[in-house]
Amino acid sequence: MAAGSITESNAMNVGVFMFLTSKTIDVVSLAQRVEAMGFDSLFLPEHAAVPVAMTSQYPAGEEFPDEYRRMYDPFVALAAAATVTERIKLGTAIAIVPERHPLLSAKVVASLDQVSRGRVIYGVGCGWIKEEGALFDVDWRRRWTQTGDFIRAMKACWGPSPAEYAGSHIRFPKLVCEPKPVQQPHPPILIAGELEQAVERIAAYGDGWMPRYLWCKQADIEQGRKRLETLYAEAGRDISRLDISLFGGHPTREFHRSFADAGANRVIHFLPMEPEAQTLQRLEDIAATLP
Amino acid sequence: MKIGVFYMPTSYSVDPASMARHLESRGFDSLWLPDHPIIPVEQNTPYPGEGEMPDYYGHLMDPFIALAAAATATTRLELGTGVALIPERNALVTAKEVATLDRVSGGRFQFGIGAGWLKEEGEIMGAVWKRRWSQTRELMLAMKACWTQEQAEFHGEYVDFPKLYSDPKPVQQPHPPILIAGELAKVGDRIVEYGDGWIPRYIKTSPADIAKTRKEMEQRFREAGRDFSRFEIVVFGCKPDREEHKRLEDAGADRVVQMLRVASPEKTLERVDIWADTLVA
How far apart are CA A241 and CA A228, in angstroms? Predict the structure, then answer.
């Protein structure tokens, strides 16, 4: 490992993810306990609305979980968490980029980075529920292109003012969209997906990768990292700050060590929907595996 | 008289959590934040205030994010948008943001809304400028469907979606109060149809206007079979003066919102403390 790289010590950052709804533990209690117990981060999902009629298949193959229909807006919830925490990163896993106007996303992400004093991780994806995308006029066949275009537009806003942009899916004349984020040049953008195209997107406009354990094992992480080293070198980018955050997996020391060796610097454990007391117990159990 | 404070949260102002905490400790009733997602460089719309539009309009934090940060720093302070620019936003995302904010604040959100005045800004953000109030009406009706129905749908000219789930629902029932900004005759129509209160600007509204409007709204609510008991008039801007507050209260205003100028954090908090000492009961 290069000196100063994110995984130099092969230490694993351990974060948690949850669908926050009006039936789960509240965001304040959750965030405070996540920080107090020594976790690295809290990640929340996004689905702004879910259509009743759906033909898209739930990726894990089971019945579509009801909590997908009921989750909190992640940015508002993370802003609430920001006030009651100081250290943990606050991330989206994942924000469905093409469903929101990129100028509003730029404003919201930067505002969240301000109120959290620079703790945002912007995990992003393009969405998998076609009928949901239709609610937001997503260009479904080209939704990754649209996502990349929207992210470039946001980076224009986070850069020097005034910003202007003309791309495949969004254009705007000179305008001011501040505040700037605290993190420079902006919060790390972690791109979801497990295919070859994911690493290409990371090299083009991302800062890291958020693959799912369901589709991505140690060898895939090693391979992905190798591929990114090549792409980054070609693009003249600094690989030392590459962030690989694995979504899902087994909360054990062996698992953490094994994936750290493969090149991941974070694992994000999934907290299922359950009553508050059980969530807190589960957090304690996972916290026992922290270094 | 309930006294709220409006200010401009930026990267160089008092942060929203600290401001909210301070306001609550000094006995203020509410915190109100502006909304301008972007400010275009080229503008042909005359600035409604004095001189040129100040730069800080382009530096304002998103109000839902800032109010959420304020929510968990407080327990009683009401948290309002003054005002959210509805045609610049998406109905489904905004419905979810409002409901989430109402949840994380335990039911303290006040939804002040408007349609915007800066044409070039509105158009970049998707406003159909000449029809922005028609557009706003549809967005608000669509949001109400999201907040009150397990499966919501809406079919309008500017907003159209099939049956969908929008959850969480807000804490306040049926939803946070919708306070509509404006001083022209049409604001009354809007409030009767989809609002719960009125946000007039002090510089444009006399106590006599307030009394007259209050009476009219009471009658129109009755005619429409609507409950007037929760109707509120929230006056934005005011001479920071007890006598003036009394005049507004006697005329029928429920809340007055003192508006802070942009200044250093130190000077800002000094001004808040002066207001607390001289205005808050």
Answer: 12
> What does pTM read for this prediction?
0.97
Enclosing domain of residue B113: 2-279
Chain A, chain B: beta-carbon pairs less than 8 Å apart:
169
Q: Is residue A163 in some structural domain?
A: yes
Alpha carbon separation from A128 to A138, A141, A192, A193, B93 (Å, rounded): 11, 11, 12, 11, 18
Q: Confirm or reject contact between B164 and chain A (CB < 8 A).
A: yes
Q: What is the pLDDT along chain A (291 residues), one digit of tens a residue?
A: 444 344 445 689 999 999 999 999 999 999 999 999 999 999 999 999 999 999 877 766 678 899 999 999 999 999 999 999 999 999 999 999 999 999 999 999 999 999 999 999 999 999 999 999 999 999 999 999 999 999 999 999 999 999 999 999 999 999 999 999 999 999 999 999 998 899 999 999 999 999 999 999 999 999 999 999 999 999 999 999 999 999 999 999 999 999 999 999 999 999 998 999 999 999 999 999 998
CATH number at residue A277: 3.20.20.30
Which ipTM was obtained for this model? Answer: 0.98
Query: What CATH number is given to the structural domain containing B258?
Result: 3.20.20.30
B201 touches chain A (CB under 8 A): no
Number of domains making up chain B: 1
Question: Cβ of A135 under 8 Å from any chain B Cβ?
Answer: yes
Between positions 186 and 245 of A, the ones with CB within 8 A of B are: none
Provide the domain count of chain A: 1
Q: Which helix (H) or strand (E) holds B274?
A: helix B265-279
Residue A7 inside a domain? The answer is: no
